[in-house]
Prior knowledge:
Layout: E1 3-7, H1 16-31, E2 35-38, H2 44-55, E3 60-65, E4 80-84, H3 87-97, E5 100-103, H4 108-122, E6 130-133, H5 140-151, E7 163-166, H6 169-177
Parallel strand pairs: 1-2, 1-5, 2-3, 3-4, 5-6, 6-7
Amino acid sequence: MNKICVFAGSNAGVSPEYGQAATELGQLMAAKGIELVYGGSRIGLMGLVADAVLANGGRVTGVMPRGLFIGEMAHKGLTEFIEVGNMHERKALMSELSDGYIALPGGLGTFEELFEVASWAQLGIHKKPVGILNVKGFYQPIADMLNHAVSAGFMRDTNLGLMLFEANAAVLLDQMAAYTAPEQANKWAELPK
Length: 193
């Protein structure tokens, strides 16, 4: 695994553990020679993970839509900074550049990016690992919701293996390196398996 796309909050959150986890993930990625691909911001958890990769000799590619965010948000010290036309181009390019994905805690944007790549995995568009760094149980409600979707008949249980929930960044990176996409059952319950 050479490049990982990290989705993360543009805010740091109220708990110092969130920032510590972002920094630790960046340090581990740099130590393993894994390049960071992310949204290009210098603030929040996004900035912390980028700064940690850079401070430890790693490479960082930021992808940001032209004119969408205020100029002070863009990280000026990245290995590569790519401007694109819109959010759709941003997500497509980040995905194209990456061998896997990790979601740190975040808000609506982070959730949207996470669910998009998980949905693409469900449809077989990619077979890349989707890791969730479950800092302080932040993503437990989503894990519970996914299990509820299975029990309610809206999702196959094989879909649960498409996302790797882990609280420890080093363990998550090891799981992603060893990842093989689970065999998926037919997504549509009304059609023959």
